[in-house]
Amino acid sequence: MKIKGFAMLGIGKTGWIEKEAPKCGPMDALVRPIVVAPCTSDIHTVWEGAIGERTDMFLGHEAVGEVMEVGELVKDFKKGDKVIVPAITPDWGDINSQRGYPMHSGDALGGWKFSNFKDGVFAELFHVNEADANLAHLPEGVDPVSAVMLTDMTTTGFHAAELAEVELGETVCVIGIGPVGLNSVMGANLKGASRIFAVGSRPNSIEVAKAYGATDIINYREGDIVEQILAKTKNIGVDKVLIAGGNVDTFAQAIKILKPGGAIGSVNYLGSGEFIKIPRVEWAVGMGHKRINGGLTPGGRYRMEKLASLVETGKYDPSKLITHRFEGFDKIEEALLLMKDKPADLIKPIVEIKW
Questions:
Q1: What is the pLDDT of residue 271?
Q2: Residue 25 and residue 146 in one domain
């Protein structure tokens, strides 16, 4: 059987193609998407060639879907189930998973399969490995449109706060308040940060940042962010910095505003640049206990279930991230190009699909 999907044809090239439908292994599932969302990672992958050449690979790694087939060893899912599909689907028996790093099962970034080295979710049907461990039931009462944010934007943003080990009462700066950065603000808030600086300039993002717990907005268009934050903290700096935007030079700014003994949690996909620049003096000539932790978000079922419970209990509303809605499978291309062009009113687009 042939299926259609929107694919990366090569670096800088995309298009609709057909290919053979995936096969379902004994522990796996085949899923039909009902809500998908494009990601900036797709943009880096296609137009920057950030992970190298990919040919005729279906794009997309954010989806809520309907199970169409399960393997004979799958216990907890059946055809017709509505499911949240995490962007990261590890091989849970891998040695790196056993070491506590399932997102790197097989190799660095190996848990990120969709639209990396495996066909993604922008297709009429897609494959999920180890379904019992990598799918989560969509709870009753949770909108699939909101749930699709959990698959990547929420889990990635929250992970920045986890990487930095944000603690009660700490001051935190979040650099970049796109959809991931906004979730970093929310994650820092949920972990008990007292004062949260959010660095960004777009009105829509600023509004959501405040709703998610930002106490101070730092507009980089109004001056150097290091100078602004040091002025607001009486030259003391912040306890933690969460990096969800910028480039290889952003780490220098983070180091300069970080207190000795502080930590940086970076979840930013660095799509270009050869080296990260660390200022020697502000890093206390290498002895300031200023830690830099960068990581790919965890994935899997349990992670998605925990995040969904925050939505169910009203502690977190991911729908605030969604600014553009499309209907129809054929709108995936338009939504992706919107993510590429990034108009001023954009935070996150989604595509609803009715079969």
A1: 81
A2: yes
